[in-house]
Amino acid sequence: MPSLWAEVISPKIKTLLGKKMDNDIYNKQNQQLHPQDILKNQAEKWQISLTSEQFARKLDETDPLQHTRNEFYVPKIGTLPHGEFIDAADKSHTDPDKDCIYFCGHSLGLQPKRVRKSIDNWLKDWAELGVRGHVHGTNPFAKCDYPCIPALKTLLGAKDNEVAVMNQLSSNIHFMMISFYRPTKERFKILYEDRAFPSDGYAIHSQIRFHGYDPTEAAVLLKPRENETYIRTEDILELLKEQGQSIALVLLSGIQFYTGQFFDIKTITHAAQQKGCVAGWDLAHAVGNVPLELHDWNVDFAVFCSYKYLNSGAGCVGGIFVHSNHFDKQYPHLDGWWGNRYETRFEMRPEMDRDTGAGGFRVSNPSIHQCAVFAASLEIFEEVGIDKLRAKSKLLTQYLQYLIENEINQSSNNLKIQFITPSDPEQRGAQLSMRISGVDGKKLFNELERSGVCSDLRADVIRIAPIPLYNTFTDVYQFVSLLKTIKI
């Protein structure tokens, strides 16, 4: 029988929860809708124009994730350097003490405020415990990567022992290819995408040469169709159908760094494996950006860094995923003492006592200060949840696209913007890559920087990433407003 307190309090709690759900724009019902329909519905509900500043601020005021911005340090306009076309002495139109509009999380995420406490704990343990800090203290050095694993398993969709924290991204590409790229006379090619991050191409070509093959024959490059900007899934499947019997490894980016395309990892992995290929993925721009289910998608291996969407700081430690299907198989390894099981690692045995799964691919002990930073950032993801972040990300990116299409790409404007990122929200993450025409793209980029926008320029393409953890709808609105007013 329920208590009197339950009878009295429960209706109040239900009412409060009901209101919270009504105001939760990222609820499951909304997640079934196209992001543009959600934005339209909210504008109609509030009777506010979609293109007004009031609408952006209303979205921020009702945002269930608005508190997460306070978890990060946002650079001030006055602390950012300006481009070569800018007169640094002229700041008449900017407030140097105002937060910049930081749209560069696809390159380097912002610093979480809780990092400082995590670093201080490590420094305290080192100062007070010395070498004993390896097994004692707040975060024992010999297990410093352990706190990172639970959140990474969730973000990657991994099972026990499928994830390891180790090295950096490019090193991990090489380590995984040593084990999983095993070319034969009949099957020796590697399939990857055009305009992959250069380091991926360097690694692929060097591994091909290392095995005695010619990259001009063994490196198969996927390109978009003529006059298109990203690669169709059906074209990838068709190429695998035609050449799959000669391809040893498919190594694509989960999200393409240049175009922002989110590849269909599940479908491509299945098609590759049906043709006998190993399917590996570079998730540098995908982890912490979009939900992943690597175990269920049967991905053979993946590599990732942690300093972009995972906000761990420049050059911080990376990691790998290895599917449990491979745990009982024998692969070539480059071995080091950290690949041993924890229980026997410090016995200094002459022979390897290899750890289970991904842990057995490690070589050197991870850096305690890097893992301390990484773990602090991952705490935020555990508290918020990737599904909520993805829901907000879709809205932020769609809002940016809508404002540019309706406020910038008008016949009266010289400035024209072409999106080279897919328009389908399911085929992109928190990024729009914009090809600039009608004005000098570099001058525009520098004027934006001068006005307090931190973004990224690649030739005539400006990459903008509204990150759901710390960017706001007002950021998006103000960015587009600047695009409207800047004169080149």
Secondary structure elements and pairings:
Elements lengths: L3 H20 L4 H4 L3 H12 L6 H9 L10 E2 L27 E2 L8 E2 L2 H15 L19 H8 L6 E3 L3 H12 L8 E5 L4 H13 L4 H4 E4 L10 H11 L3 E7 L11 H10 L3 E5 L18 E4 L14 E4 L19 H4 L22 H17 L1 H23 L7 E4 L12 E6 L3 H10 L2 E2 L1 E3 L2 E4 L8 H13 L3
Parallel strand pairs: 2-13, 5-6, 5-7, 7-8, 8-9
Antiparallel strand pairs: 1-3, 4-10, 9-10, 11-12, 12-15, 14-15
Helix pairs in contact: 3-14, 4-16, 5-13, 6-13, 7-8, 10-11, 14-16
How would you describe the overall organization of this protein?
With 488 residues, the protein is an alpha/beta fold. It has two domains: 36-103 and 387-485, Aspartate Aminotransferase, domain 1 (Alpha-Beta Complex), CATH 3.90.1150; 118-384, Type I PLP-dependent aspartate aminotransferase-like (Major domain) (Aspartate Aminotransferase, domain 2). It is built from 16 helices and 15 strands. A seven-stranded mixed beta sheet has the order 4-10-9-8-7-5-6, sandwiched between helices. Strands 11-12-15-14 form a four-stranded antiparallel beta sheet, covered by helices on one side. Helix 11 links the parallel strand 7 and strand 8. The chain is globular and about 70 Å long. The termini are far apart.
